[in-house]
Amino acid sequence: MWDALVGVVKSAYTAALGEGSVPRPLMMPLVRGKLVGMIWVRPLRVGQDALTGIAELANIAAAAGADEVILAWETHDVATACQLPIVGPAPCLNMVLATLAGHVLHQFPYTEQLLSRSAEGWASAAPDWRPASAPQPGGELVPPIQTAVNYAFTPIELNHPDPFGVTVVLMEEDGYSVRLTEAFAR
Predict the structure, then answer these.
(1) What are phi and psi of 7, to 5 degrees?
(2) Is the N or the C terminus of the chain less surrounded, counting Cβ atoms within 10 Å?
(3) What pTM did the predictor assign?
(4) Would you say residue 64 has pLDDT above 80?
């Protein structure tokens, strides 16, 4: 499952860079080895809003009772949005696989090959994937990602007959992009 999810995320990054953007941070919660879905962070404002928005990715994982989560983010993009120093290789797709017992950080550095530039100055690029770093058990995570990992396994207590469903609806209303697998679809 891990290799398939890495492939999906790398393909999404390749497509987004080709369109002149970087995909937003993404969380993929799993329950007993089954993928709940994919949740992309809402549009963010630089600073505290970005820190909060990324950390809130944990809400659906917590509501689903996830026992594993995978988060994906781009080093420079998150550092810039959260006004944090760049830690680690950049540009770099980072993916962390986390459980209650701990996490393993995987880094997929790349260089950008310019494909084209629009009259407005937008650049279209393709990633030239470099060799991946060795997996880092307990590797350092930037604060909003660490917070999302920490809260992903904290049960959400809502006085509602369907806490998972209402969490999904509330997050979608806040601007998060939520794509649930068939097993978890409302």
Answers:
(1) -60, -40
(2) C
(3) 0.91
(4) yes
